[in-house]
Amino acid sequence: MLILECPCCGVKAEETELAPGGEAHLKRFGPGSSDEEFEAYMFARKNPKGVHFERWRHAYGCGKWFLAARCTATLEVFGTYPAQTTEPPAELIAKIKAKRPDWKGWK
Question: Do residues 81 and 56 touch, judged by C-beta distance below 8 A?
């Protein structure tokens, strides 16, 4: 069972209380972008085996969106942080690198 801590309300919630929102930190393209940029934004997603940054919503709790870093192979959760953050916090990156020295980075 996947358990994530909502950084908004502090509740540790099982995945049944949460709604997944896909990949985090996407660069959004809209009006004025090229067809290739918009197509990549709409359809191209990473699907890594390893550390991945995702959006989650505390659907049966506070209802707020947040971001999480977890390993897709082991379901190990490295941490969560507010959705308004434009990049993962430095302490979260340091925690991931300490546990996964071969990790290449978040971008």
Answer: no
